[in-house]
Every structure is written in C-alpha cells, then in structure tokens.
What we know:
By secondary structure, this protein is of the alpha+beta class. The chain folds into 2 domains: 46 residues; 137 residues, Beta Polymerase, domain 2, CATH 3.30.460. Helices cover 44% and strands 16% of the residues. A hairpin with a 5-residue loop joins strand 3 and strand 4. The longest helix has 42 residues.
Amino acid sequence: xxxxxxxxxxxxxxxxxxxxxxxxxxxxxxxxxxxxxxxxxxxxxxxxxxxxxxxxxxxxxxxxxxxxxxxxxxxxxxxxxxxxxxxxxxxxxxxxxxxxxxxxxxxxxxxxxxxxxxxxxxxxxxxxxxxxxxxxxxxxxxxxxxxxxxxxxxxxxxxxxxxxxxxxxxxxxxxxxxxxxxxxxxxxxxxxxxxxxxxxxxxxxxxxxxxxxxxxxxxxxx
Length: 222
C-alpha cells in the first residue's frame, strides 16, 4: 500500500507528533496490533532510536489510539465504518448467546473504534470455572480454539486468563473467561493504562446502533 500523509494528533513535540502519525499509519496499513511495536517501527523509519540518548520518550498509547481512529475516519471512510458496525453487531450476537450464564462484557478496540481488519471482537465472560464456556460452546456445535491472554491489574499483578477463540463469519470473536469476582475487578487497558471500559449487553446494543455517518463525523467511546 502506498505511503499516505497521516493526520497528526496536534500534541507534543514535532518528533512525538511524527511518531504518533507514523505509528497509526503502520497499525492501519500493515495490520500491526501491538502499539509498542508500531511505535518502535515508526521511530526506526523516522531515523530515530528509543532509550538512553534518544530525543524523547515514546508517545503514550492513548495518543496512538486516537490517531488510529482519526486515520481510519479519514482514509478508511465508509469501509472502515461499515466493518466497525459489523464487528459491533457480531459482538452483540455473541453476547446474547452468552448472556444467560456468563455476564458478558464488550471491551477493546471495537468499543473505542480503533480497529483494523486484523482486529477481533474482545468479550469478557465470568463463571466459577472457565471450562464451563468450553462445554457451552461444544454443546452448541461452535468450533473454537483454546488460548490464553495476560491481563495486568492496578496493583501491578499480571494474570493469565483462559481464552476461547471462534469465528462468526468473517469476524473473529475472543472470549476471555474470568472468575465471578472479576466482575468487580477490572484489568487495565493496554491503550491508556486505565481500567478497561466494559460494556454490558444493553450498552453494546446501543453502540451497535450507531450509524456510519455518526462514526465518521463524531468521536466514539474511548
């Protein structure tokens, strides 16, 4: 894909703005999901280095997330908005399936709008035993893969959480299975370091009802 002029966040030093813009372009055009990797790659392409002796610290992830959303609105346009709506609707359908026993919550890029075609829907579920979800999906004939993801908490601890991954048409769904007590114990978002925004089914349905014009013309939830 050809290199495009990327919108700037308008904050910080010239170098910081350049890194934010280039990192957002890398994420959107090269399907890089990890913000730190995108920032380091952006520094390298700008002829800079990180660490001691560098001209400045890496910009924060919240700035990158905002730049990704801005980039997608400008360059992704209706294709981006349509895919975001499809992901949000798929999330609602998955949450309705899980609603009776797992208190599902929608999290991540589908909530903020900072998505690319490489992103998957991220849902948190809650149960006494994580394998309950495996039995639930098996009983309904839904093929899935088991995985694991580390979540960091405000006290500094990092906890591995079981993950079930399946496909809903062309959209990937990841369900992280937490214990029941974790409904009141929220991990930190890798995007801004704050407790993750968790949407219940009603909030997710309201988000899925947001149309293309609103997505492209006004800020989304962060």
